[in-house]
Amino acid sequence: MMRPLFLSLLLACASPGFSQDAPPPAANQAEEIEFSANLLTYDENADLVTATGDVILTRDGTRLTADRVRWERKTGLVEADGRVLIVDPSGNRVVGDRIALTDSLKDGFVSNILLVLEDGSRLAAVDGVRKDEVTTLNRAVYSPCAVVDANGCPLRPVWQIKALRIVHDPARGLVSYQKARLEMFGIPLVALPGLSHPDNFDRNRSGLLGPDVRFNRFLGAEVSLPYFISFAPNRDLTLTPFLYTGVNPVLGASYRHLFDAGPIEIGGRITWARGQTLAPDGVSLLDTANRIRGNLDIKGQLNHGDGWRSTFSSRLATDDNFLGRYQISYDDRLRSTWNLEHFGGQSYLSVQGWAFQGLRATDRADTTPLALPLVDFRWRLPLQPLGGALMLHVNSLNIHRAAGQDMTRALASLQWDRSWLSTAGQRLTLTALVRGDVYNTRNGELADLPLYAGENGWKARAIPLVAADIEWPLAGALWGGTQTLTPHIQFVASRAGVNSGIPNEDARAIDLEDINLFSLNRFPGFDRWEGGARITYGATWTWNAPGLAASAQLGQSYRFSSEGNLYPDGTGLSNRFSDLVGRFNIRIGRWVELSQRVRIDNENLAIRRNETDVTFGTRSTYATVGYFKYNRNINLEDLRDHEELRLGGRLPVGRFWAVYGAIIVDLTSRADDPLTVNDGFQPIRHRVGVTYLDDCLEFGLSWRRDYVSNINIRRGNSFLFTLSLKNLGI
């Protein structure tokens, strides 16, 4: 980091007190200066002190070395020449052929100067002058890049800034440039009028940050110019004007504040522009009148002490397609949430609120739910009846819609668990649970689907459950490694028929998977309960050897009684024998990793769900393949079938360059989903680019193409150029 360079240069330190013929120095000089040289002489007639040969002066932590130092006591001029090197307490180094100072040690001149800063950055100049602690370098150049290669041979800096004059003002903590120009790879690129930056490159100092340059068909050329404002070490504001050639400019802002309790960040963008809405044909877009458009993002976390913490996050937009139109986000639903938590030694309390903003053309604000409050309390009781553990669980939820089904729920459960480990290694766990729910439904006839509707008024239900779970790990040697086979059997019995008249708000996305196969209730949430008696069975196999690993899990369940239409077709649970679910993983060193999750139809062995991800290579050189297909024949809109392929990769080219690319292809056809408009091969988007990265420079150029259009995304090309110069914020 840059510091005052001449640093009260200790050269008055050339104390003649070390010469036998010299007059004694002042006491304060002798106390402040450490001095050594091969030869020290004093000319009494000229009042001149001369030190030669490996001269070393040290004062206040600053060290000067030179071949020769001369001090003219009459004029107060101190001169050093021959391999002059000054090192200040911060580690900054000044190298020059000749340096001249007044005996005030504050003003001076250096010729052919090189400054090596603490972080390795270099400032070189033909000469430099320091007056009133302000240093001026003439015909100077700055660069943090390496100037020698790995073999010690000279190397042209990747980039440098040449200036007619560079001024360092330590009182202001600023380095400023006059008539500066940026050069990259030896090629002059652009003038930098008015360039300045903090002398210690403090990330909390105000100043202009690096611009981003983009281009796409609908916004035109885009340049963003962020300006960072530091109010204090814990508070700052970044203002970013976004300038476009195709649309009106946008102003962005991001405010950050680190309180003693935790961080808060508030950001957003605003503009005056036309919006877009979906035409009556449901396909084309219509422009609206000019109006204020923008978005707001708020997030933070505050610790209140004594185990209390609040976390909050809010995302809002003025209209459906502002975020997509300006390529800020392609999310089609924004969530705002607040959560107050308390962490006790054996308890946990959460009080939450949730609000949503739908951005799809079919979303209606009056049917979007507001969940407030959502209360969840869990307490592991200190009692241990029959040697087991007791857990008390209380939950409450209120959901309101302006024109839809409203619901209030309260429930409490008490669960007892005890585990045994036999001498043969089997692990047996017994569970008993009792739960009571109370619901109040309003406007049930306005539910999204009849399947989700509840009966208006009050409803209550009692749910008892007992379960037994047995696991038996078996280990042994295999192919130079160790394998473990763990059979797993679970029996669950609970009251059936407890869902009649109960609204379904949080248990809609039911789908049998490997992660919920052995759950006591395989519905997400609380509104639906899987009753009756069932047995679940499966096995997990793992194998580990040096540089190799593999694992597999497969399981299924059988329900002894039928619960009618509780489980929608295609969820894997609609028959007494469930579908088979499994997970498979293979790892070969650090080069290959495969993960697959499947669900197999129990009647015809058709693959109902297939999620496969494969990664080849290392962190710097890799290829990825992702594929998933849902073939469940589900008619519910939020569980529609889909097929997708994802490809990506990165390849270094030489030491500093790399190319990368990624593509997403929608393989869904009308045979998979009658509502789709795709033909079975529809690219969604692709991105390709090139990057350069070394110790002082990073830049990249990428091309993105979107192949589909909707209210948030427009078909077309986008180009992005990024540039980052070390220490300049650019």
Q: Features of this protein?
A:
730 residues; mainly beta; 14-stranded antiparallel sheet; 58% strand; elongated; LptD_C; membrane; LipoPS_assembly_LptD; cell outer membrane; LPS-assembly protein LptD
Cα separation of the termini: 17 Å
What oligomeric state do these chains adopt?
single chain
Poorly predicted segments: 1-31
Secondary-structure-based class equals: mainly beta
Which shape, going by the Cα principal axes?
elongated
Radius of gyration computed on alpha carbons: 36 Å
- Number of distinct helices: 2
Compute the average pLDDT. Answer: 86
How many DSSP E strands?
Answer: 43
The profile of the biggest β sheet is: 26 strands, antiparallel, barrel
Helical percent range? Answer: under 10%
- Give the amount of beta strand, in percent: over 45%
Q: What does it look like?
A:
This is LPS-assembly protein LptD. It is found in: Cell outer membrane. Keywords: Cell outer membrane, Membrane, Signal. It holds the Pfam family LptD. Component of the lipopolysaccharide transport and assembly complex. The protein has 730 residues and is mostly beta strands. Among the domains are: 11-200, lipopolysaccharide transport protein A fold; 404-597, no CATH class. 1% of the residues lie in helices and 58% in strands. The chain is built from 2 helices and 43 strands. The strands form 2 sheets. The protein has a 26-stranded antiparallel beta barrel. Strand 24 and strand 25 (347-358) form a beta hairpin.
